[in-house]
Each structure stands twice: as structure tokens, then as C-alpha cells.
Write a structure and sequence with these properties.
The protein is of the alpha/beta class. It has two domains: 194 residues, D-Maltodextrin-Binding Protein, domain 2, CATH 3.40.190.10; 136 residues, Periplasmic binding protein-like II (D-Maltodextrin-Binding Protein, domain 2). The protein is built from 13 helices and 13 strands. The strands form four sheets. A six-stranded mixed beta sheet has the order 1-3-2-4-13-5, sandwiched between helices. The longest helix has 25 residues.
């Protein structure tokens, strides 16, 4: 059910349409485009508003953004065909996999696919208090790592970074917090030693200016084994040179760390190819109209797109990317493999649901995860969870 507050918060984007250029005339959008995003004020929401204004100014399509506080609420309008595209985070991967909040009778693995996503100057990794003396992530052995209760994404990300250093939860001391802000206050107050986050987050800057200080240990791209271990836990991470944020980052002095795209503009597999193609093409050709209008929007550049990521690209978006010269045979092969993974997971779910699974929510999730693991193993595919 769509969150009523989310619907009431729908924001209509207005602007004056300008005369269409020759390139714009090739793009045909519906009279209105509805998009979902994170809550108002978040970078994902602000970027989506900027994209929506461009769609109005350049192509004459009225756009509105529905803000929502969690992945389920962001996907539901898209699932019900009441939205055209959703600005997701790494939850799009969890939706594809049918895990965590999607390991429920109402959801299961989703045939969700992507169009464009943003990778900007920031990195996403474990921030470590400088006063710990830690120089590399391997030095976190025996240290305190912050977790957030009820936030599987944040916790999974922390475990992925630990895996890079060949560490697991058993090698560290997990300290749980009620929320993300509480966790960051915890590291400032010396209740924990490392927490997961973005280099450009406000709390990271607070830690930097606190007596403890901040460090983001490097994750050298040359450490192939480390990256392989990391991707077994967080397949959505990509190598990235961070050049901005709290710490010693700059274009002249980048630090090799991990990241993943955000926002990730997502659609369902069943959406018409031409509809997704036109939306993606509009975002590519209209890039100059929004790239400077919200922090992180410049990361939507077609040249900055993550290659061979963890969720497949919709065929409509592939067509637009090919036209822009941003698609390779290697990407095509990888994408086909991801599409096959989605087919296997959805077929497994359909079979599972026909087998009279438990009515108890916890047992239901446990039974599904066991089936999921067996099916992926039989297909020779990695089971991250």
C-alpha cells in the first residue's frame, strides 16, 4: 500500500518549456512523468528534482517526485505502475535478490533493472577514528565496529569492507546503535572505532573536527584478492578514487576506496522498451540542464556510469547507452548473466510460493532463504547472503 504521507508530499515541478532542439525533438516523453526518491532534503531527492526540472524545461514533460523513507515505499508506486522510475540506493540489489525487507510474502525477488546511476567524487567505506592508530583495514582486528539495528544495508556494507581485509564479524567487536546518527555520535563519543558511511556526509565532517579525527584507509585496486573477498559480501561495490569529503582527499591526492552508485534510477523489466529508452535518452541528452543543479548530479554523466554492476540494465536503457557510445560487448555479456540470475531467482520464488510456505513471517523468510541458497548453488551462482 502506498504511504499516504508520501503521496501528500508529492511535489509538482514547474518551469517554462523552451523550444525543442533537434536532438530534443527525437525524444518523446509522456505529458507527465512521476518519479520516486528518498526523503525530501536527501541528495537523491534533490538530484531527482533537478532531473525533473530538466524534463520540463527541455522536453515539456511535467514531472513530480514522490519522497519516501524506505526502499519498499519507493518501489511500490513503480510496482503498481503509478510511477515511471525510482531513484533507488543499494536497496535495488536487495530487491532483486529477495532478501531482508524483500524476503516477505508480499515481495520476494523483484525483476528490477536500472537505467542511469550516479557516481561522484565521494567514496563509501568504513570511517575510522584516527586516534585508534589504524592505518589499514586489517588493523581493525579486535576493534569496535558500529552496526545499526534494523539496517541490513549499512551492516552488510561494513562486513564487506571488513572482508576486503580478510576479517569477519568474529574478528571485531560489534557495537549496536539505534540509528545511523546515533552510530556516528557513538564514534565521536568513543563508543566505537569505525562506522560505515560516505566521505561527504555531515557526520563524517563532525568526526573529522572532533578530538578523535578521521581516517579512511585505502583499498588498493592492486589488491585483487581483497576486492574479490569484498564482492562476495557486497557485489555492488566498485573501485573508486575518492577526491572529496572529510579526510585527506583531493583531485591531486585521491584515495582508492570503494563506492556504489547513488541514486540508481530503476525501472521494472516489464516496462515498455521505448518508454525506458526515451527516459534514459532524455537524461543523457539533457545532462547539461541538471548536472550543476544538485550535489552529486554530475555523477550521472554517461561517461561515469558503473560498468558490469550487480543489477542488470533494462534493454531500453541499453539502447540509449549504445547510441551514446557507452556500451561494450563485455557489458552485454555481463548483463545477460545478470538477467539470467533474475530469471532463476523469480522462478525459485514462484516454486517456493506454490509449496505452502509457513504463515509465520520469520519462518517464512528462513524457508525462502534456504530455497534461494540451494537454487543459486545449483546454478553455480554466488549467494552473498
Amino acid at each position: 500500500m502506498i504511504n499516504s504521507k508520501m503521496m501528500l508530499a508529492a511535489i509538482a515541478l514547474t518551469g517554462t518549456a523552451v523550444a525543442a532542439s533537434t536532438a530534443a525533438a527525437q525524444v518523446k516523453l509522456p505529458p507527465s512523468v512521476t518519479m520516486t526518491a528518498y526523503d525530501t532534503g536527501t541528495s537523491g531527492f534533490n538530484i531527482t528534482v533537478a532531473v525533473g526540472k530538466m524534463l520540463k524545461d527541455k522536453y515539456g514533460a511535467d514531472a513530480r517526485v514522490l519522497p519516501a523513507g524506505n526502499d519498499v515505499a519507493r518501489l511500490q508506486p513503480l510496482r503498481l505502475k503509478r510511477a515511471s522510475i525510482s531513484a533507488m540506493g543499494v536497496g535495488v540489489y536487495f530487491a532483486q535478490e529477495g532478501v531482508f525487507e524483500f524476503a516477505t510474502r508480499e515481495w520476494g525477488p523483484q525483476p528490477i533493472q536500472i537505467t542511469l546511476s550516479s557516481i561522484d567524487c565521494n567514496g563509501l567505506s568504513l570511517a575510522v577514528a584516527a586516534d585508534t592508530g589504524v592505518k589499514s583495514y586489517a588493523d581493525l582486528k579486535g576493534k569496535r565496529i558500529g552496526f545499526v539495528v534494523g539496517s541490513p544495508a549499512l551492516n552488510q556494507n561494513a562486513l564487506a569492507v571488513l572482508a576486503f581485509a580478510n576479517l569477519t564479524a568474529k574478528d571485531v567487536k560489534i557495537v549496536e546503535f539505534a540509528g545511523n546518527n546515533a552510530m556516528w555520535k557513538g564514534i565521536i563519543n568513543n563508543d566505537t572505532d569505525a562506522v560505515f558511511g560516505s566521505t561527504i556526509s555531515g557526520p563524517a565532517k563532525e568526526l573529522q573536527t572532533s578530538p578523535r579525527g578521521i581516517i579512511w584507509p585505502a583499498m588498493p585496486f592492486s589488491d585483487k584478492a581483497g576486492w574479490e573477498r569484498m564482492r562476495k559480501v557486497g557485489p555492488y561495490f566498485t573501485e573508486h578514487k575518492a577526491t572529496c569529503g572529510a579526510g585527506e582527499f583531493s583531485k591531486e591526492k585521491p584515495v582508492e576506496v570503494g563506492t556504489y552508485p547513488y541514486p540508481i534510477y530503476s525501472v521494472y523489466a516489464g516496462q515498455p522498451e521505448d518508454e525506458v529508452y526515451m527516459l534514459t535518452k532524455a537524461m543523457i541528452e539533457g545532462y547539461d540542464g541538471y548536472k550543476d543543479n544538485a550535489p552529486g548530479a554530475s555523477g550521472l554523466s554517461v561517461k561515469a556510469q558503473a560498468k558490469n554492476w550487480a543489477v542488470p540494465t533494462h534493454k531500453g536503457a541499453v539502447k540509449a547507452l549504445k547510441e551514446a557510445g557507452a556500451w561494450s560487448d563485455d557489458q552485454e555479456k555481463h548483463n545477460n548473466g545478470l538477467l539470467k540470475r533474475q530469471e532463476i531467482l523469480i522462478a525459485a520464488w514462484d516454486g517456493f510460493m506454490k509449496g505452502n510456505p509457513s504463515a509465520d513471517a520469520a519462518k517464512f523468510a528462513e524457508e525462502w532463504m534456504a530455497v534461494r541458497k540451494a537454487v543459486l548453488s545449483k546454478a553455480g551462482l554466488i549467494d552473498t547472503f
